[in-house]
Amino acid sequence: ALPEGLANLADFEASAQARVDAAAWAYLNGGAADELTLRANRTAWDAIQLQPRVLRDLSGGHTRVPLLGRELRHPLLLAPIAYQRLFHADGELATAHAAAAQEAGLILSAQASVDMEAVAAPMLADAAAGPLWFQLYWRDDRDFMRALLRRIEAASFEALVLTVDAPVHGARDRERRIGFKLPDDIRAVNLGGVKKPLDLQPGQSALFDGLMPRAATWREIDWLRSESKLPLLLKGVTHADDAREALARGVTGFIVSNHGGRALDTLPATAELLPPLRAALGSDIPLLVDGGIRRGTDVLKAMALGANAVLLGRPYVHALAASGALGVAHALRLLRDELEIAMALSGCKTLADAGPALLWPGNSPLK
Ligand code: FNR
Hints:
GO terms for molecular function: oxidoreductase activity. By secondary structure, this protein is α/β, with parallel strands linked by helices.
């Protein structure tokens, strides 16, 4: 059942925390180092103000948006979040039922703790469900990657998202302080097989001699493009030159992200990163954004800054921990309702009406 008195996404946090052990909580909520980027994501959305228009005829308005050849009921997707069975026994399966019920998109983490076919089923069974995408981390084994791609395609995922901002773990102080370790019964079940152990000589760096030689480079982008016809989005590109290079190599679009402040600390907020990328790439390239989206007004601001859709991260996992599929569905419903209210009160009949003019110039990041 749902806890009493839930009015917004933040209201799920208290009951979630009561049900999640302290180490898993540190893993979920923590960011890298001083958590400056984690906090900046939130404060940047808060700092943007809206300049509403009134007396427009908004009858027949809606939240629908076009994305990768489909029309979505609304612009919300659930971000890839690893190991969701840490937070609820049904893990990613509950999340998928909720996404389908609320017509949201779902990006399944490479490190999901439930089989991808099981997660896909409720999304595929519901014609109104949003897009179903699979997030990849590069694994330095092409046979393994090829087999994984075939399985992702067979399971009817519609696009690949390669996360490029976390080739190694960020310096997550909260996790280290509490000694977070994955329990034995929660694993990345879709990544069977064993990772090769690092083979290091004395004096070599585990990071630069062990891990980085296995990380993706532009070569692997070319390989992915040649191995799968699915659209490929990169998650975590923040520099326009990297985005241009990716486009030249056949990448389809981008998720503007700083990994929820969990990878490199001191990156700008995503509300600051998005406008220059949109300006550099023009209006036709799919650009999604995540990090600190908590309110319908945040979604509207992201769209006004040029996003085609937005990803929701930690809050849906709070809802999952608090009340499983019902919680996640309720969280999505609350956010959808807030978005509709924000549109109606700001004079946007559709999200195509959310542009730079909607942002109060005094503190708009569109300089
Ligand atoms: C993540 N994120 C993430 N990203 C990714 O590409 N693959 C993954 O497996 C994970 N796993 C993961 C676990 C946890 C516990 C968190 C909190 C985040 C990052 C995620 O997709 C997204 O970028 C951020 O969470 C968005 O920021 P907010 O909404 O959490 O502020």
